[in-house]
Every structure is written in structure tokens, then in C-alpha cells.
Specification:
Structural class of chain A: alpha/beta
Radius of gyration of chain B: 21 Å
Strand order of the largest sheet of chain A: 6-7-8-3-9-10-12-11
Strand content of chain B: 15-25%
Helix content of chain B: 25-40%
Shape of chain B: globular
Oligomer: heterodimer
Largest interface: A-B, 50 and 56 residues
């Protein structure tokens, strides 16, 4: 892949929180490249680090969180910028954040200001990043609200967040997020708080906007069905690590990591008639990522673990097994000859 | 009016249930309107079955669940239970009567969010034993034994009896709620979104626990959820609610594969399937759910319905049986053919 079609290159990103109880490793050495126009899904259960990962990229992790590694943001005709090396409060990151990279949050009521009108909040962002007058900014805002499907946009723009329904709030938030034509849009569980029919409307809107503007997107969710419909590539996360990374059709047809397999088996799809009375469940619970031992992160809960291969005091690497499919599992290491060199396999 | 066929025994019969909440304004609390949370709902629940109840937020599904447990007074209608031939009409009974005739022991509820339904200042022992002290005459040691048994049965270590809810994870807290609901040996449990606050892998554990307990204790469930996948797996029959009314009620497979109400079909179309080769989940009925304070006249779904005609705008459709216990409230149900849910094809089945 040439550097020009990559928009974001995450290399060995690590975000840790030093707590009194120990070191909490929220994001543990993740690497991925995002191409222009590509939609990538970060999937995992709560506490797997998916939200902290994107917050690290945007540099909005709260104290005492500290990020290491490299996150290169590529812009056409410019040198790539390492976002991790920037001052999180500095001017450089603020020029990128909100204009070139923008984010949509899960709960629109918390993401919107309760004491400012929608107009206020939208115009602020537009006027901050573009040289436009107040009237022009307002005009643009109305146009954007119309575009995201808010009826009577001229009137609704003067509403406060609490005067809008959940779906309308999320639409307003999306309008705000696309107001400066970002090249990269991060959506953190954008439909989790919504009802299914509103979810369908919002997913359709995001998909249309993504195609129309050719935006790249990072889509965070715990819902594998939403992932199947929305993304080109899936990264499954567990305990701060990416355990599997593959194109969406490939991963659904051929999941290789035991965690991905279990996750997929526990999907209750309304299209599937009940064949067995009990649901396939993963035993145990996700451990707290504090002072974890140095070994495969899924070892304790894995039903496919191999006593010979998996007991060792190190974590498996994310290895490419072909077809753009990467897996972090010792059991897969054998299959790729030579990948695992001197440590045997 | 919906009647149960003779061969299967109905545990609960609900007829014309209504629950209106008054809107009060000003210092004198003058009633300025009514929210018709549940409006003329009739159904029955068979003994030993799971009736799934699905609908979007604000459609009245939780209010129905609480009303049939008599968590509050109902506005109108009757709710009759039949515990082994013992008929109890709970619709007008006082709280004292409900306690004395054993109704409170035989019915329980599991709530959505175990963080807010468990008192943070009570230990697990106190939480699980509270219904026992209120409803039985067991002494302290007997209560403790019962709590230990219940904890072990729902998969909790009985040594943690003296701990507070904050020391447990979300899934474990929901196990505490289940143990508490089981404490008085109920025959009927209303589970109101019991897994909505949980992760998928934990959700599977809790659903399995509920299924095992159902077999072991011959429980009847009213399972309320907005998640159609969970409803499909858990229910024998499914009721779909919209703006305070049941619009469709049918056996599980019939409802998902051959829906007869346009709202059900729209709901099924709006669910994304976990199969990237089938485009789904990007279509929904236009507009938003109506206002329960001022629902549209006639069929409340008509402003969003592509089949709506004049009669839909004027007359409220009755829930009627289209054969094989498939109940629909739609004027045009007999004339229209609707698409059911699609089945996944290209996905690895593990």
C-alpha cells in the first residue's frame, strides 16, 4: 500500500493508566492502517479498550492516561503528522480535531450542551475552523441539518438538545460532526442508545454520508450485526489488544480467533430459528486489565487452548494468515510457516 | 376479546387492560391530560410458556408487565390468575389481600438494570432474604440456608453472602436479582429487559440460567425486550406492542416468518443481520413513533403505514384471530402480504 492512500497509520499504540492498584493497560500495542474511504469496525465488549483507543488517537484521553507509540495522520500534499507527539491541548491538534477528524458519541444528550441551542453549537465549530460570517455559518448549519433529515430545519436549529427526540439529537450531532467536511469520522457506538427503527435510519444516514463524501470511518460497536452491515474491515479487540483483523466477509465466513468464534456463536440473530435451547456462552468474565500476566490475553477463558502451544510467558503476535486476515493466536502460528521462526511453533 | 383454547391452560388472562397516567400542571395539580400508556390490551399467558413482548421505548411494554403484577392500580380491565385451579382476580384487590392470598409470593419481577434495582446499602443476604421475611414465616437460620441454596443455584459463591452489590460485576448482579426473584418459589416472573445492560457473552450466560431455571421450577415468563434476537430465542409466543396496544400476537416462528401487521414487518426490516452478504437494517418505517399523550386517531400506526386508507384514520382496529392463534390488529391484514425476516446464509456456523 502506498502512503498516499493511507489516511491513518496506527503503530504500536499503548495507553496506560497508573492507578494506585497497579498499571491499567487499556490499549495494549495496537497497530492498524486505515485507507482513504475505508470503514473499519472496532468490535469488542465493554472494557476491551475500543473507546480509549480512538480517544488516544484524538488525544482526548483523561488523566492519568498516557499514550505511547505512533499515530500518523496523512493529508494530501503534506508531511504526515504524528498525533501522539503533539501537545494534547496545543494548537496543532486543535486544528486537526474537529476539522479533519471528528467524532460522534454514543449518548447525544451528553455530547450536546444543555444550555446552548443547536445553532449556537454548530456555528461555533464552523466559525472556529472556517473564515465565514455569522450569517453564512447559520446558513450552512441549516443546510446541514436539512441534509441529515431534520424536518423544518430553520425552526429546529434554535431548539435546545432536550427539545429534540433521541433520533433527532443524534442527527444534529452528525450534522455537527460533518460540518467541516472531515476526512476521518469516528463513530463511538452511535446507535446503541436508540431504538431499532431509529437505529436503521441513522445507520442509513451514516452510510449515505460516507459514500457521498468518501470519508474514512472508524466505527466502534459491540453489535456484530451492525458491523456486518456498516464496515469494510473488522478489528476484534479483547483486553486492549486486537486479536483478529480481517475484511468483513472473510471474518464472518471464517473467524479464526477462539474469542471471535465464541462472540459470533453467541449472537442471537432474529433470523435464526432456535435449534438448541441454550445459547453458546463464553465462560467466566473479562478480567480487569490491571497487572495482567504476560501471556495470551484470552488464555483463561479459551476452550480451544492447546496445552503444548498456549502455555508460555509471552503474548502471541498478530500474524498474517493470508487474504488480509490477521490473528493473534498461538494455534494459528503453526499454519504460517516461518512466521514464528526461532521460538518454534 | 381474546379467549384461550380449552386444551392449554392459561395461567393469566388479561382483558381490556387500561393504564392511564394523569398529567398534572400547576400548583393545584390540575389534570390537564392523560398518557394512555396501556390502552385496551387483552391477552393470556399459558402455564409454563414464555411470552415475549417486544416494542420500542414508550410503547407500554414495561407498564403492561407492572400492571399485571399489580405494581400499581390499574385504570380499567381485569387480570385473572389461575394457580392450579385457584382463580385470583387481582385487578381490584388491595395490597393486603394480594399479600394474604399468596399472590405476592407466586409472582416476581426481574428488572433491567441491576445497578439501580439492587439497594447499594444492603448485603446480598439482606437483598435475597427481604422477600422471604415479607412473605414467609421462616426463621433466621432457615432463611440463611435458603439464601445459600439460591446463591449456589444461580451460580454465585455463597461465601459472598455478606458482600454488597458493588463488589460484583454486572452479570453477577443480575444473578443476585434472579436469586431474589426465585426466593419465594414463584410460578410467574416478569423479566423486564433482563439482559439489555449486559455484554453479549454475559447476556448468553444469563439467558441460559433463566432457561435452566424455567425447566427446573416450571416457571412461566413474561419476557420483555426490545432486542428481537433475544425475543426470538427465548419466546414460545410473541406480542408486538405499539403506542400502548398489542398490534400482533403469534407463535414465535409465525411472527418472524409470516408477520401480518405492517408495523411488525417494518420492525423486522429495520434489524441488521449479522451477515455482511445480506443488506439489512438500513430500512425503517418513515417518521417517528407518535406521542402517547395525543396518539393519532384510528390505528395509531397509520401515519407511518404504506397501506393506510380512510378506515385506518377513523377506526381503531380490533385484535382478531386469523387462524392458528395468530392475532392481528389491522384493518387490512387479510389483504396484504408482508415479508418476514431474512435468514443468514454465508456465515460460519460454529
Amino acid at each position: 500500500m502506498s502512503a498516499s492512500d493511507t489516511i491513518l497509520s496506527v503503530q504500536n499504540l499503548r495507553t496506560e493508566f497508573k492507578l494506585s492498584r497497579g498499571l491499567l493497560r487499556a490499549v495494549d500495542d495496537i497497530s492498524f492502517d486505515l485507507k482513504r474511504g475505508e470503514v473499519i469496525g472496532l468490535v469488542g465488549e465493554s472494557g476491551c479498550g475500543k473507546s480509549i483507543a480512538v480517544r488516544s488517537i484524538l488525544r482526548i484521553v483523561r488523566k492519568p492516561g498516557r499514550s505511547q507509540g505512533k499515530v500518523y495522520f496523512h493529508q494530501p500534499g503534506k508531511d504526515p503528522v504524528d498525533l501522539i507527539s503533539l501537545n494534547p491541548m496545543g494548537n496543532e491538534i486543535r486544528r486537526i480535531r474537529g476539522k479533519h477528524i471528528n467524532m460522534i458519541f454514543q449518548e447525544p444528550m451528553n455530547a450536546l450542551s444543555p444550555v446552548h441551542t443547536i445553532a449556537n453549537q454548530m456555528m461555533e465549530a464552523i466559525m472556529l475552523h472556517n473564515k465565514v460570517s455569522k450569517e453564512e455559518a447559520r446558513q450552512q448549519s441549516v443546510e446541514l441539518l436539512r441534509q441529515v433529515g431534520i424536518p423544518e430545519a430553520e425552526k429546529r436549529i434554535d431548539s435546545y438538545a432536550f427539545q429534540l427526540s433521541g433520533g433527532m439529537r443524534q442527527r444534529a450531532l452528525i450534522a455537527m460532526a460533518i460540518s467541516c467536511n472531515p476526512e476521518l469520522l469516528i463513530a463511538d457506538e452511535p446507535t446503541t442508545a436508540l431504538d431499532v427503527s431509529v437505529q436503521a435510519q441513522i445507520l442509513k444516514l451514516l452510510k449515505d454520508l460516507q459514500t457521498q463524501y468518501g470519508m474514512s470511518m472508524i466505527f466502534i460497536t459491540h453489535d456484530l450485526a451492525v458491523v456486518a452491515q456498516m464496515v469494510d474491515r473488522v478489528c476484534v479487540m479483547y483486553l486492549g489488544q486486537i486479536v483478529e483483523d480481517a475484511p468483513v466477509r472473510e471474518i464472518f465466513a471464517n473467524p479464526r480467533h477462539p474469542y471471535t468464534r465464541k462472540l459470533m456463536a453467541s449472537i442471537l440473530d432474529p433470523g435464526d430459528p432456535r435449534e438448541e435451547r441454550l445459547v453458546s456462552a463464553i465462560k467466566g468474565a473479562v478480567p480487569e486489565p490491571i497487572n495482567l500476566p504476560d501471556r495470551c490475553c484470552f488464555y483463561d477463558r479459551c476452550e480451544e487452548r492447546d496445552l503444548e502451544k498456549c502455555i508460555r510467558d509471552k503474548t502471541p503476535e498478530l500474524v498474517d494468515i493470508g487474504l488480509n486476515h490477521k490473528v493473534r493466536c498461538f494455534r494459528e502460528h503453526n499454519i504460517v510457516k516461518g512466521q514464528y521462526g526461532k521460538n518454534g511453533g | 376479546m381474546v379467549n384461550s383454547p380449552a386444551e392449554k391452560k392459561a395461567l393469566i388472562r388479561v382483558s381490556n387492560l387500561k393504564k392511564y397516567f394523569p398529567i398534572e400542571k400547576g400548583m393545584l395539580k390540575k389534570t390537564t391530560g392523560m398518557v394512555k400508556a396501556v390502552d385496551d390490551v387483552s391477552f393470556f399467558i399459558y402455564e409454563g410458556e414464555t411470552l415475549g413482548m417486544v416494542g420500542e421505548s414508550g410503547c407500554g411494554k414495561s407498564t403492561i408487565g407492572k400492571a399485571i403484577l399489580r405494581a400499581f392500580d390499574i385504570t380499567d380491565g381485569t387480570v385473572v390468575y389461575n394457580f392450579n385451579g385457584d382463580e385470583i382476580d387481582v385487578s381490584r384487590a388491595s395490597n393486603r389481600e394480594l399479600r394474604l392470598n399468596g399472590f405476592r409470593k407466586k409472582t416476581q419481577m426481574i428488572f433491567q438494570d441491576p445497578n439501580s434495582s439492587l439497594d447499594p446499602r444492603m448485603t446480598v443476604l439482606e437483598l435475597i432474604s427481604e422477600p422471604l421475611y415479607a412473605n414467609t414465616t421462616l426463621n433466621r437460620n432457615e432463611v440463611k440456608d435458603r439464601v445459600a441454596y439460591l446463591m449456589q443455584r444461580v451460580g454465585l459463591d455463597e461465601r459472598y453472602m455478606k458482600r454488597y452489590p458493588h463488589a460484583f460485576s454486572g452479570g453477577q448482579r443480575q444473578r443476585i436479582s434472579i436469586a431474589r426473584a426465585l426466593s419465594t418459589n414463584p410460578s410467574f416472573i416478569v423479566a423486564d429487559e433482563p439482559t439489555s445492560a449486559l455484554d453479549v457473552s454475559i447476556q448468553a450466560q444469563i439467558l441460559n440460567l433463566m432457561l435452566e431455571l424455567q425447566d427446573e421450577f416450571k416457571l412461566t415468563y413474561l419476557f420483555i425486550s426490545h432486542n428481537l434476537g433475544v425475543i426470538r430465542h427465548m419466546s414460545d409466543r410473541v406480542a408486538v406492542t405499539y403506542l400502548g396496544r398489542i398490534v400482533e400476537l403469534a407463535k414465535n416462528a409465525a411472527l418472524f416468518e409470516t408477520p401480518k401487521h405492517p408495523y411488525t414487518a417494518a420492525l423486522l426490516k429495520s434489524i441488521p443481520l449479522a451477515d455482511p452478504t445480506i443488506e439489512s437494517g438500513l430500512e425503517a418505517a418513515p417518521g417517528e413513533i407518535g406521542n402517547p399523550l395525543n396518539p393519532p386517531p384510528g390505528c395509531s400506526f397509520h401515519p407511518r403505514c404504506e397501506y393506510a386508507t380512510d378506515i385506518c384514520r377513523q377506526q381503531v382496529p380490533e385484535l382478531y384471530d386469523m387462524g392458528d392463534e395468530h392475532f392481528v390488529a389491522c384493518h387490512h391484514a387479510a389483504e396484504i402480504t408482508l415479508e418476514g425476516i431474512k435468514t443468514r446464509v454465508s456465515v460460519a456456523r460454529i
